[in-house]
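Chapter summary example.
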Amino acid sequence: MAAQPAATDSSCLLDYDIISDPHPLQAASTNSDTQRATLRIIVSNGGKQPVYCKNIFLSLPHGDNIAQCLLKSGATDGDGSAVDSNGTAWTVTNVQKGVLDFLPQGDYAHFKTAPGDSETQHAELSATSLTITIKNLQINTVPGVARIEIREMSTHDTETWPALHRDGKIQITKHPRLTGVRQLAYDFQADPPEVECGGQVHLTWRGPDVAYTVEHGTGAEKVNKNRQETEKEYKAKVYRNSTFRVSYVVEEVTHYLTTTVTVKDPQYTGITVKGGGISVEDAPGDVFSATHKEPMGRIFINSKGEIGDDGELKVRGDIRVYGKITPIPGGIDAMEGPAKLIGNPRILYTFGDYPTEHMRAKASFRIGTANGLLMAYAEILELGHHFKLEVNGYRLDVTGDPHVLRYLTIPMMAGIRVDLKLDRTVKARGVMFWHSLGGGLKPDYVKWEPIEAE
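The structure predicted for these 454 residues follows.
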């Protein structure tokens, strides 16, 4: 939108300019044309002295088949509002015919703008400006230059006010109704621009009175099923981030508008993403469900092959690891099928998560026909708990801060007897590995026997 030239024949102390929407302002195609226009009159002080203003009257001429008139005869006067550049609202009221004197002969729509309801109240316009908005105006059918009459009660000195309003004019051109590519749709927006999953969005745009087609993906669902093609709005429920495209044809040329709506916690086909994680429903094959878990933000794997919180992973088939393995307490407890871990580490025993009672036990076994390393890893999960493991005089004693992984590595010769003694509380866990340094038989699995507290 662009401003029209300001009036030059004026005794007003303030300057006036005008902006139309649509721009350029167009005469109606017929008397039955329903398109409405909006005028914004910008008022400011272009001089060096302060200007004090009590009120401003704007008079918009009515008349059919007259180039100098702006509005249709019998049309509604429109809706007015005003606000200054500081955000302070002024009152705008429609004024009855005959209130103003010294106007040219004719029929007018009168608007009174004032800083308050009192006739003596005034406002200073120095560095501030005032915008008067008049909406829902019905323009007549004849192109031409129309003049809006201005009456201004203003002064430089609040002790001296004029007896009569200062007068002025501002002109605006009504252009012939535009056709073709110059009259395009615009201002395509979504309200609100972001919704919850399944929330409703209201799409609106402005443009010529033509058929509009709205397209979007499967992440949105149309709500207003009975929408007419010429309506400049669309309502939809949105389940995931979606882009909406409006297409229309003007003089055999297709034009497009697009806007995007974002969704909190979106839902995809079979998948729901929420702040706590991802869940999958009604999927045709193997799926997983991942949820952030405290402490330490771990991902747990349950016995169904899902990422959950049971702490067990079942593997059908081979596992091949060609890099370094860092054992984590409470790790793999059972497998179906051979496990080929390059480097030959073997789990001798896993002390599971969150046992139901304090465990005190002992065990003995003999190393097979190969030398190797016996490795134990442990941690506590809460303050006040402990994990104590003694292996042939070597000790792994874990207390103090939770979630600090500690370990013990002991070289073992083939055929040596290994004696184990364990004392662990409820909120402690660990795992014991055998790492063979050659071929031959490995140790048997550890079988624990309970012992009494010392």
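To summarize the output: The first strand starts at residue 3 and ends at 4.
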